[in-house]
Request: fold
Amino acid sequence: MTVSNEAMPDQAAASSANAEAAHARLRATLPVTERVKRLLPTRTSRSPAPRATRSSIWSESPASIADLVAYTAAGDWVLGEKAPVLEFLGKAYGYLVAVPVSVVLYAVAWLLQRPGRFALAWLVALVVWLGA
Reply:
């Protein structure tokens, strides 16, 4: 046997009052920023932007230096054993250009990520320059 809310108006009014009281308690306990976040649509409720689905520097972390060295050593860009010249040229490029440039640029990025590191690097550079 089911009872509808129309048959029991006092119960419907009580449940409505309980819902309003719960909402008031929630409003009183959450900071303003959390309440605003609940009102705004979330990223998961919308379809992702087309750029976010593709591999890019914005959506993935860069490969580590160890990964670059392993990729260079494996020579995975050459199909089969039929092109030893291409494999040699690729490994030479990897070891002589890609890995050293990546090490330098990763170090620069690491220095620039924090203001304290950047200031310390400038201070060391200034001391070395004045001492020379």
About this structure: The CA atoms of residues 116 and 128 lie 18 Å apart. DSSP finds six helices and no strands in the chain.
